[in-house]
Specification:
Helix content of chain A: 25-40%
Radius of gyration of chain A: 22 Å
Largest sheet of chain B: none
Radius of gyration of chain B: 17 Å
Number of domains of chain B: 2
Order of helices and strands of chain A: HHHHHHEEEEEEEHEE
Oligomer: heterodimer
Largest interface: A-B, 70 and 73 residues
Strand content of chain A: 15-25%
Helix content of chain B: over 70%
Distance between the termini of chain B: 38 Å
Strand order of the largest sheet of chain A: 5-4-8-9-1-2-3-7-6
CATH class of the largest domain in chain A: Mainly Beta
Strand content of chain B: under 5%
CATH topology of the largest domain in chain B: Arc Repressor Mutant, subunit A
Number of helices of chain A: 7
CATH topology of the largest domain in chain A: Immunoglobulin-like
CATH superfamily of the largest domain in chain B: Winged helix-like DNA-binding domain superfamily/Winged helix DNA-binding domain
Shape of chain A: elongated
Number of helices of chain B: 9
Distance between the termini of chain A: 36 Å
Amino acid sequence: MNCKGKPELRQRLAAEYALGTLRGRARERLKRWLRDDAELAREVAQWEARLAPMAGVVAPVTPPARLWHAVDRRTASPAKKPRSIWKALGLVASGAAAALLVVALFFRPQPAGVPASYIAVLSDPKTSQPVLVATAERGETVLRLNTLDPAIHVAGRSLELWALPRDGAPRSLGVVANEERFRVQLAAAADQALGDVPALALSLEPPGGSPTGQPTGPVLYTGPCVKYW
Amino acid sequence: MGDRGAFRALYEASAAKLFGVALRILRREDWAEEVLQECYVSVWRHAPEYRASRAAPMTWMTSIVRNRCLDWLRRPNPEPLADDTLEKIEDQNPGPLAELERARDSAALARCLRGLDAKQRQAIALAFFDGLSHAELAAHLREPLGTVKTWVRRGLARLRSCLELQG
């Protein structure tokens, strides 16, 4: 017996499983169905994504150091080594991304211990060294930039940030404002501006930005953009 | 940086938030530690099966932790919700939903939660944050089981249509 052909029941079970109110035998039964019902698994995943932002407001509590030691001990065995956790988590778009989380952590975009929703790490293509970390929260219209290179600005020129969509031409995200902190004012919330953008690029442009709507100057840095949360 | 370094970085980025989530549901540090240990071992082993298209990494890991916590609560002799914990839940001011409304990341969800009846909202929040079952919700809210189940069911259905409208 299963719930196929009963869309309303499936919806309700998926929602209550994700919320956590489905318990006992009903929960175990749904877990069994999930193993070979991809459609149901997708509905559960959608519900988990809908509710997940709620977890963002739970106060972080630093666990004791022995937790990491125990995890480290249990995962260090080479026998169970996964392919690559980077690849698996979709965080590798280029070799330069290997430093992504470390660099992002170095900058600690949020004090609460959770990385920002969107993180992009731009690197110098010649040296593969990360130079710039861009972070934004989902609903925000500001992209914060942290640079490892204080000499990144060139007098009399503007730096312009570009979204590199999967298909099609680069799309300008805006000119980098050189104020106390580097930032780019987005035309829309980060979810719209970066939602389907696998990579960003930074180019050197005439003052005020490219006059053509496409990069005209040299592209200084490029790198992957990841939706983390 | 190899896989080990990446895994360590992932741990550092997420452990405090996930420990907070587990602690809130399990209410005991030793249990939360044990569950989180299992979760990270599971993340390490199952990372190759993770599909970025399905969920953002933090959503994926949060779901693993919440599900493990709920499985843990099914074990015999779970700690009862202590009376002072009940008081804390009731007294929370401004409470988790107000925090959610302030959080930049979750404005759409907050708007939709705000659109629910207060009872529906409270039941969903207690279930999500504190891991209460229908029976525990009924006891805590001092309402019949059937009433509480209806709040949760209707609340979730309204939440879904509201979030779909918000795009």
